[in-house]
Amino acid sequence: MSTITLALVGAGERGQNCYAPHVLRNGQGMHFTAVAEPDEHRRNEFVAHYGVPSQNVFKTADELFAAPRIADAVLICTQDKQHYEHARAAILKGYTVLLEKPISPSPQECISLQKLATKHGVTIVVCHVLRYTNIFKTIKKLLDDGAIGDIVSIVHTENIGYWHYAHSYVRGNWKSSADSSPMILAKCCHDLDILSWLIGSRCKSVSSFGDLRYFTKDNAPEGAPSRCLEGCPKSSTCPYYAPKMYMTGAKDWPASCLGPDLSEEGRRRALMEGPYGKCVFSGENDVVDHQVASLLFENGVSVSFTASAFSNACERTMKIMGTTGEINVSTANNQVTLTEFGPGMRTGNTNTIKIVKSPYGHNGGDEGIMENFAGVIRGFVPNENLFEQSVHSHIIAFAAEEARLTGEVVNLSEFEKTILAD
Ligand SMILES: NC(=O)c1ccc[n+]([C@@H]2O[C@H](COP(=O)([O-])OP(=O)(O)OC[C@H]3O[C@@H](n4cnc5c(N)ncnc54)[C@H](O)[C@@H]3O)[C@@H](O)[C@H]2O)c1
């Protein structure tokens, strides 16, 4: 098997902890020959694990891209607003690109990257990791095999999980729409991608409602200090009391976001000084905590989509209704239930498919995308996760946000024209 050389831009939570370990576990001939990471601890840790030669260790993406091309492909795992510049530089250098989602918080930048990648014949695979999970691959196959006839409508719910929402969208990197992106893009571009992929059509129009209902100053308990550890009177009952989430001894995500020092003292310091110890009602966040969208696809399929912080489990549930049957999905139970309508009333034949749980991130999606990426680079497998499809699912997210803010139904073709005119 030929060797594939990789460069990593951004050795953070995703790059270092989710994708890179695949190379050590089951490298498929892949190995890292370069890294760019400004955080010294993360950079050194990565170099030690992956044996990157010192001449290819950079502090920033700019330095890495200023050098002649040093790998076959690059993994871009920096923060949302950096993706555009980093992907642009990668395209111009001719790297095959694995790009973290979102492509960019700007619709213009998404389209501009699509044009540039097409012009230079560069493959960009966006990390829509759900596509690579056994559960969604099973659903896709059932649909493609016509198990429920033609899809007519879908009810899809993204149950974010109250603690996951608090970690990422109240205290964490995606709490501010202006600093990162609206929640429907940051979190739900995965759902919009999966829906478009399963439906096999482009979206025609969208309406949407939602706001920030609960995680606001108005809902702060009386006497709540700005940080949980400053003597909060609700410490024993508040579901968001930071020490209960982060002082557990666990070292993996979300505790790993506290920083490199995960000793008790280090965690305490992080909660007293960093973002993850702040009261969830301190009012520094502005992204929605619940949003619904109605989508109509060009092939006539209608979708009712809900994303909400207010759930116990972090899971997606889905009901796909077709002309000859229905599919019900629970990602928490790792279960797909197929019912084919029978003759006469209520005689449907139901078959429950249990999906084997993966030990890896996103129920195997993080592993699956890396495996597939190796095949795409070698030309062994077709790239079915096309960049233009990712751009389209992002445009749906931007259109949904426009619909939410204006209260109007947004026609996607018209919306795209206004983006291109800007
Ligand atoms: N696909 C998914 O399911 C999924 C899940 C979570 C997050 N994400 C996305 O992954 C991306 C990274 O998220 P994360 O949680 O790993 O964040 P992170 O902050 O842990 O990692 C980003 C890393 O980039 C580094 N960096 C900053 N500036 C840089 C530069 N100029 N050059 C090189 N490196 C630089 C940072 O120091 C940091 O280590 C985000 O865009 C996020 O939205 C995707």
Describe the fold and architecture.
The protein is of the alpha/beta class and 422 residues long. The chain has three domains: 4-126, Rossmann fold (3-Layer(aba) Sandwich); 131-214 and 286-361 and 386-421, Dihydrodipicolinate Reductase, domain 2 (2-Layer Sandwich); 217-277, no CATH class. The chain is built from 14 helices and 15 strands. It has helices at 13-26, 40-50, 61-66, 83-93, 107-120, 134-144, 162-170, 183-186, 189-199, 242-246, 264-273, 365-378, 387-406, 412-421, and strands at residues 4-9, 30-36, 57-58, 73-76, 96-99, 124-126, 151-159, 203-211, 290-297, 302-308, 315-322, 325-330, 335-340, 349-354, 410-411. A nine-stranded mixed sheet has the order 14-13-12-11-7-10-9-8-15. Strands 3-2-1-4-5-6 form a six-stranded parallel sheet, sandwiched between helices. A hairpin with an 8-residue loop joins β13 and β14 (349-354). α1 crosses α12 (365-378) and α5 packs antiparallel against α13. It is globular. The protein starts with a strand and ends with a helix. The structure holds nicotinamide-adenine-dinucleotide. Nicotinamide-adenine-dinucleotide (NAD) binds at residues 9-15, 36-39, 42, 60-61, 77-80, 82, 100-101, 127, 129, 186, 362.
